[in-house]
Every structure is written in C-alpha cells, then in structure tokens.
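Supplementary Note 3. Input sequence used for the single-chain structure prediction.
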Amino acid sequence: MNFTDLIYLKIIPSGLLLALKIISAIVSLLMIAGITFFLKKTSWLTMRYTQDLKDFLSFKPIDVKKFEKILTKIQNRLQSQSMDEHKLALIESDNLLGEILGKMGYKGRDISEQLEKISEDILPNVWKVREARKIISNIISDPDYLISADKAKGIMKVYEVAFQELGVI
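The predicted structure, written as discrete structure tokens, is reproduced below.
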C-alpha cells in the first residue's frame, strides 16, 4: 500500500470521491460549453485567425470593402452643391485616413501625430496630405470657413492618392 492509497482510504471515503469526480466533470463540461458559446457569439476568433488569412489571400490589406463603401459615400457628398457637404466629406476622409493609419500601427493622439510618424517611403505624398490636413483642421476649428468645390475636390484627390499608396483602394 502506498501513500496515495492511504489518503484515499483514510481521508476521503469512496462515495464522496466518486461524487467529487462527477461534480468536477460536470463543471469542466460547463466551462468548455461556456467558452465555446462565447467564442461563437463574439468576433474574437474571426479577428484573431481568419481576418489575417482573408487579407493574405485577397492580397489587400485591412478591410478594403468597408473603406471602399465609406469612400463612395464621401464621393457622393462631394458631388452635391452644398459647401457643408464638401466640408463633411473632407472631415470624413481625414477621419478615414486616421483610422487606416491606426490599423497600420501608426499610433498618435490625432492624425497629425500619425502623419509625423509615417515616412515618405510608405506614403510618398505625405507632405501634400499634411498641407491638406491643415485646411481640414481650419474647417474643423472654424465652421464658417469657406472652401470652394474645386479646392475640396483637389484636397480629396490628395487623400485618394494617399489611399492608393497605402493600398486601401
């Protein structure tokens, strides 16, 4: 008789040991079921494993379809005759660029800080984007800022080139 057998015989009666084993098995199965349930309900598993595979197989980075949809919405705003719609389109394109840079790993308090961290090797027209960003900052800080439709389309063209160079469109 070894030490383990002594413990089982003296300390824990056989009926109680069987009950503990059954309760432990039930708790383990409930935990596994709970983990499986929450993995299916959340998008963590998809984001963790399949998103990278999708990006790799499609040869396109990030979530291109989402960004193309937003860009279409921005282009529709630029087609309108309203200066406010043009301003909103520029602000949305600026926010979109910030989101893209954030997903690419360029962290910063705002988009200006993100643009300071990016090199011309990654984004060759970064200086044009910085200049366009100044105008958009003026639009944000001054709601009465006047901008022509041609100037808004020119700024949007700078952002479109940036999106192309980043591989989003």
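The two ends are 74 Å apart (CA to CA). The mean pLDDT is 84.
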